Amino acid sequence: MAEQYRAQFDAEVTFANGGGLRTDGFRLDIPGRDITDDELAALFVRHLGLLMVAEVRIGAKTIIEEPHKGGRGVTTGTRPPRRLVELSHVITDGMTTLPGWPAPQITDWLTFAASRANYAPGVEFHVARVDMIANTGTYLDTPAHRWAEGADLAGVPLDRLADLPGAVVRVPAGTRAVDRLMLAPYEVAGRAVLLHTGWDAHFGTDRYGAPEAPHLTGDAARALADAGAALVGIDSINIDDMSPTAGGERPAHSTLLGAGIPIVEHLTGLDALPPEGFRFTAAPPRVAGMGTFPVRAFATVD
Questions:
Q1: 219 Cβ contact partners less than 8 Å away, ≥ 6 residues apart
Q2: Which end of the chain has fewer beta carbons closer than 10 Å to its terminal beta carbon, N or C?
Q3: Beta 231-234 vs 192-196: how paired, if at all?
Q4: How far apart are CA 196 and CA 60, in angstroms?
Q5: What is the largest CA-CA distance in the chain?
Q6: Contact 54, 15 (CB under 8 A)
Q7: Which residues, including other chains, have CB under 8 Å from residue 252's CB and lie 6 or more apart?
Q8: Helices (H) and strands (E) in the chain, counts
Q9: Alpha-carbon distance 227 to 233, whole Å?
């Protein structure tokens, strides 16, 4: 374990709005033994959360090799670093998300060269333009995608989209239909339930839209809605069965969105997540009148 230090000192505080504070023999965690009086004063103010401080005079300072006790401003080193996991596909010019659907076109609206006429010498900017359908890349479905009176991108509350406790459902390879019994072992109430099928490996290829693409059954969707899932995501082409034998029925969309549960499709990278113990975010811009839009989906893992 690395050496840890604390400072013992006297402090006399003067406040800008009048009055003062004095401490004798105060001890405080410090990042290293060479801390200056000014640095110690700033750390002291932050640790106590003092406001409107005009001056701090430090006296009788002694540096002690001693384990940290915890406090604002100095980490103890006992908490592992936070890890961010990317869960969305990159949107590129001409890419295919849904076979047969229009690809995005990414062009320049204002180039660096053209912008120079508008600004001082040496100043330039670039502004791009994206022409695409809403169902591009990794995207969110809101209730308005399925139901005319459902909440749209501007109407879905943030507590359904951001910083949600998550659970990953590992789907065995070769499974087409994720049914109710496959979800039974998981606690889903209030969580983002992410179905890890591995089908994202085929994204951008003809295989991605094949009839055997994994999906969620209507019965399983009802189980998730009844159990209070906050959001449901999948790393496949669609949360519903897209095969010709499905007859155009969309029971998973109808049930989940009817219950106000957003859906995220075309996720990727779910293999990097633990089964639980992470937070999930997939928040789109607040566009009124639209039911779907691409998101930067990610997870925060402690």
A1: 179, 180
A2: N
A3: parallel
A4: 60
A5: 82
A6: yes
A7: 215, 216, 217, 218, 220, 221, 239, 240, 263
A8: 5, 16
A9: 16
